[in-house]
Model the fold of this input.
Amino acid sequence: MPTAELRADAQDADERHDAKRGVERKQPRLAFKPLHTMWRRTIDLVELTRVDLPVRALPDALRGVVACQISDLHVDRDEDVERLGRAIEMINREQPDLVFLTGDYFSGPDSMRNYLGAFREAVARLAPRSGLFAIGGNHDHWAGYAQIAETLRHAGAEVLANESRKITLRGERLAIVGIDDLWSRRAEPVRAFRHVGRGEPTVVLAHNPDTALYARHLRPGVMLSGHTHGGVVRIPFYGSPLRSILRIGKQYYSGLNRFDDFYIYTNRGLGTFWFRVRFNCRPEVSRFSLLPLAEEKRQGKAPRIAHLAAEPARPHREARARNRRRRRS
Done:
């Protein structure tokens, strides 16, 4: 069933339940509607970020390979399913060679059980040309990692937990390395790299950017992470006021940053957890164009990053109306 229809069914069920109880569903007071609209836009508008991503030892033949990343979905409510559906539409329009999912798909066991089916159907719609890869995050281990990993596999993803897979693109080999979650004490970088040669190009998936502190001696090609939700609140010229998420430094809460002799990209995530708040920190789909790290060094300038217009993640009225007509017939 399409994502919009799932949400429409759930909303109609809520309305019928409230009608039986004689409860009138409350709408925001007129005076607060502008604030409510602004708040919803901050958590629902998904931004596409295009990034030139330097990768150590990347063969020249792999220059321009397109990869997309989403992270921290926290599929806990109908609105999160809808937001995920919109992000997947955005990814498929980019026609990527690779798609990476970097953890925290649900916040806890209750939401995992409630939305596992809708999550599987949404992920199954991803259509990369050469591979879909996923790792777990701290919330996934708290919610029920075995069931989440199995669902991801059924949806077509290759799930990596302290292991690697080598793929061939344009006649060259690229290793995708998945390091398990750091906060839940399951990260084993050495084990994840055990089948990777020292000079091989790698894309490392690690939910927590702090994993770089324990993997840098393994010479990652590039690391893709999430976990931080971009710092949640980002103040212009200052960044996030949060202090306790990362040991590596608050500059790694979001975006592309150099660490030692490789880059880390931290995705701002799609969902929210605990506080349903974002400020100057929109949900994000990352779209990468790979390039050799040596080229970035030669040019002596920072890689290009473009933040494209955000798209709303709201239910379609047409789908909701279709559902109502179908139930009446």
The longest helix spans residues 3-21.
